[in-house]
Design goal:
The protein is α+β, with helices and mostly antiparallel strands. It contains 4 helices and 9 strands, in the order βββββββαβαβαα.
């Protein structure tokens, strides 16, 4: 069952199991901008969230009242900038023509287990061309073959 909360980002409905991202530091709650968690319980006036850990920290849960802290949103995706410093089990990266060497490195080093890159073939070729040395090029060699489904345009 979903519960609707008013957040800094507009009204959002949350249910047990939803991913959440915190968008402002709060020392009292012990959350930082960009921290993620999973909703454990919802009531009309509060949320209990299990904060994601990097494996070295002890797991912990917080209870927050959105009337007092409303800087949160659904946390199923984030920008490359927001992901800096984070480690996740699996990363799914949407490549674009705006990705340079530095952004691609950050995006492609956030995962423990698996990283998948989704992009237009032209953007992948551009990433490969923009790397300066053979060493960099070999570390970013991307297999951008694909099967076309449907008729050619």
């Amino acid at each position: 069952m979903e519960t609707l909360f008013q957040t800094d980002h507009g009204p959002r409905a949350f249910a047990v199991g939803d991913r959440i991202v915190f968008t402002r530091n709060d020392r009292d709650l012990g959350v930082k901008n960009g921290s993620f968690g999973v909703v454990e319980k919802t009531d009309n006036d509060q949320l209990r969230v299990r904060i994601d850990t990097d494996g070295n920290e002890k797991a912990r849960s917080i209870t927050m009242m959105p009337d007092h802290y409303s800087a949160f949103d659904h946390g199923y995706a984030c920008t490359i900038h927001k992901s800096q410093g984070a480690t996740v089990d699996n990363a799914y990266v949407l490549g674009s023509n705006t990705m340079d060497h530095h952004l691609s490195y950050v995006a492609m080093t956030r995962h423990r287990d698996e990283m998948r890159l989704y992009s237009e073939p032209a953007a992948l070729r551009r990433l490969e061309r923009n790397h300066d040395s053979e060493t960099e090029r070999s570390t970013l060699h991307l297999d951008h073959t694909h099967k076309r489904s449907g008729p050619r345009r």
